[in-house]
Amino acid sequence: MIKAIITTLGASLIIVSTGHCNQSALWGKDGELWKVNQPLKDFSFAGYRQSEVSIPNIPKSVSIRDFGGHGDGKTDETQALLKAIAACPIGGKVFLPAGDYLITDLIEINKSVVIAGAGMDKTKLILPKYLVDLHPRPGKTTGGIPTPLWSWSGGFIEFNKTSEVGIEDLTFQFPETPYLGHFEEHGSNGVNFEECHDGWAQRLRFVNADSGIFVSHSQHITVREIEFAAYAGRSSLNHEGVIGHHAVDFMHDSSLCLGEEINFKNKFFHELGIEHGAHANVYSHCTGLDIVLDHHQLNVHGNLWTDIDVGKGIHIWANNSRGSTMDEVYWNIRSAKDIPYPPFKLKNIVVGITGRGGEMRGTNAPWAEVIAPAELEPQNIFQAQLAKRIGVAKANAVLGAMTP
What we know:
Elements: E1 2-8, E2 11-17, E3 22-23, E4 62-63, E5 72-76, H1 78-87, E6 92-96, E7 99-102, E8 107-109, E9 113-117, E10 123-126, H2 131-134, E11 138-140, E12 146-148, E13 157-160, E14 163-173, E15 189-194, E16 197-207, E17 211-216, E18 219-229, E19 242-251, E20 258-264, E21 267-274, E22 282-287, E23 293-295, E24 304-309, E25 329-334, E26 349-353, E27 367-369, E28 376-377, H3 381-390, H4 392-400
Parallel strand pairs: 3-28, 4-6, 5-7, 6-9, 7-10, 8-13, 9-14, 10-14, 13-15, 14-16, 15-17, 16-18, 17-19, 18-20, 19-21, 20-22, 21-23, 22-24, 24-25, 25-26, 26-27
Antiparallel strand pairs: 1-2, 11-12
């Protein structure tokens, strides 16, 4: 019997495997074969405070109810939330008790505070307006198509140039309107981290979002336990089941960010994104209907994708035609259909993906080992590297600390 540490549904478990196990020549059983950067890099520093400590459970400092918040789903709570944030001490928490809170404008946060609800099934932000109407930001695509900048950036909750910030335990509820289509988005966007470090977004649900979470010019941001859903009429036949643009996107030179436990009940154009110089980021333990591992612009490299069930596997490599997928690591990528291996010229590391490919082993990338994902040990190389660096018990505590 072989034991492997994994994290699932907010709890760390010791799983005992009795099936056939295959270990990578890059790692071995416990990392005894690993030589850092030859060619597998150390990704364990990704996430809040290098994943060395748990995301803190900060006590409530102020409540939105103290500033006129009702949580009745009818009263405009925008000013109450802004007042609560202004009154919250640095390093404190603004608490939104169970209820529905109507927010009608962008909330900009420029200091170290946490916005927290009572749980994604208890606290809901109702966002009936569109950012494009509130704050027009006209722009163009790289092909010159006029489109709002909200199509691929920004959010109703904006963290700017700060650290030790977070948002947790609530749902974003956007209007029940049909998805307008690619580059037609009006800005039903959730959260944006801009020039931040050591922050988090955890235990969040996004319903009918154009885009969920953007992380731009930022480092050591953890995005964890995120769910995407939509009402039944959100997508039209013209969009082949797509209900939004970008779900989670690490962009604009962001590095060492961690996306973990991200689950999709619907299809986006781009589910898990890396773009514009982003590097050394990690996507870990995610599931969806037909996930795109999206490399959106040039000069993205050195990121890790591990323990991901992409679903159908039809669009896994969509939007990766710009040659920007250099020096990536794909470790335990599962699919309902065989996935074509990336070309060797891209110098990626591929260990344990659904399908058959050519073997390639050497001192440097490219490296490819044809191992069935179900047989690969460890299943999650990010978690294995973290356990090796800080110890099994400590890693287990950090990865399992997902509930307050």
